[in-house]
Amino acid sequence: MAKIAVSKSASRSAGTRLQHSLLWRIKVRLQFTGWFQYLPTATAALALLLVAAMGRLIGVWPLVLFWIPACLGGLLLAVTLLDLVTVKLGIRPAEAVPRPTDDLDAFDLMRTRRSCRSFQPRNLLESHLSQVLASVRAHTAADVLIGDSPIRFEYIAGSLTVWPSVGAHEFLVAIGPKAYDRMAIVDVGRSLQRVVLDATRMGVATCWIGPGADHASVVQHLGERFDPEADHIICVCALGYKSRYLPLFIHAMQYGQRRRLPLASLFFADAELREPLDVGAPPFARFGRSYEVCQWSPSSYNGQTTRCVGVADTTGDAAQAIRFDFYASTRSRYYAPVAVGIWCADWEAGCEALGIAGRFAALPAEARGVHAEPDVPHYDVSWIADNPDTAGALTARA
């Protein structure tokens, strides 16, 4: 009997795994063929219409059993059809090229930038593409990287298999070394975010795509530009002009991802991440909105996996902020270090706007005053203020 029970249990477990695997494959297939974003709205519409039909068949006509589901179901069905026509089939009026955002300062630019989920069918203007590629060259040069490994961004004009953005047909593919190099991944996040900010300034929309990119389709488009023996695709960034035509489901999903953790949950005064950093008090107050733009930095599934520790030198007459240490709060090997790099880019851009000079460096534990290096949070890199009075005071005194 025990053997039979074990056999039945194993059979059910295998069946569950198969079912989940099958459902997962169907979901991924629908995502990458561009149909999944319409199914939730259509399913809700049909369910509501079914409730209304059943209410009428059994002779029940109260408001909640017929009119409300019938009206809501009809509305959602109409929205689904409109989304299919305007987005999936692309039958819609032409849209104008967005204007550049030269009137915004660096902080407002970073704060207002949003991931674009729907792109116009038009190609980038030649001038915009030229500027984007110039930004790529500037931010991937060996002398601006934190690590020693080279990274590069390959431009692709073609319909890659990606999710959840619709209509994207121009991309930057971030490529690092095949052998795992965490600092190269941080550099990808930092460099690509600087390109994204430059594109945003031009009026070019962008969308970071990590788990939602089918690497097989990316490799196919790259062709000889990708060496499977030496290269690894870190992530993809879609480029183009934002379209106002967006599936309702994607719009709702995007709205739900706009929440952010409070600063007290992101910036700390100790390496154990227990004491929140008082960002409004000296000596940290002078960094102003740099905290805010990091708080609103993009991350995979809006996970906000980056943490930061502010370190002050208190040996002189007045405390000076000398260093900010950036950590990943999860064991993710790729998306967490990319998110750290994005924070580094936004922090760096904020400090540049404030006229505060500094540099990035990966410091050993002893230089940071840390005696035991935990696996999580995982330290990645530090931003060190260029202050002649405190440049040598790297050891934490918390």
Topology of this structure?
Layout: H1 2-32, H2 39-57, H3 67-88, H4 106-112, H5 126-139, E1 152-157, E2 170-177, H6 182-202, E3 205-209, H7 215-222, E4 231-240, H8 248-256, E5 267-268, H9 290-295, E6 306-313, E7 320-328, H10 335-354, E8 358-361, E9 378-385
Parallel strand pairs: 5-6
Antiparallel strand pairs: 1-2, 2-4, 3-4, 6-7, 7-9, 8-9
Helix pairs in contact: 2-3, 5-6, 6-10
Count of DSSP-assigned helices: 10
Distance between the termini: 62 Å
What's the number of structural domains?
3
Q: What name is given to the CATH topology of the largest domain?
A: NADH Oxidase
What is the overall pLDDT average? 89
Report strand order across the widest sheet: 5-6-7-9-8
| Class per helix and strand makeup | alpha+beta
CATH superfamily of the largest domain: NADH Oxidase
How many strands, what sense, and barrel or not for the largest sheet? 5 strands, mixed
Instruction: Please tally the β strands and state the result.
Output: 9
Shape: globular
Helical residue percent?
25-40%
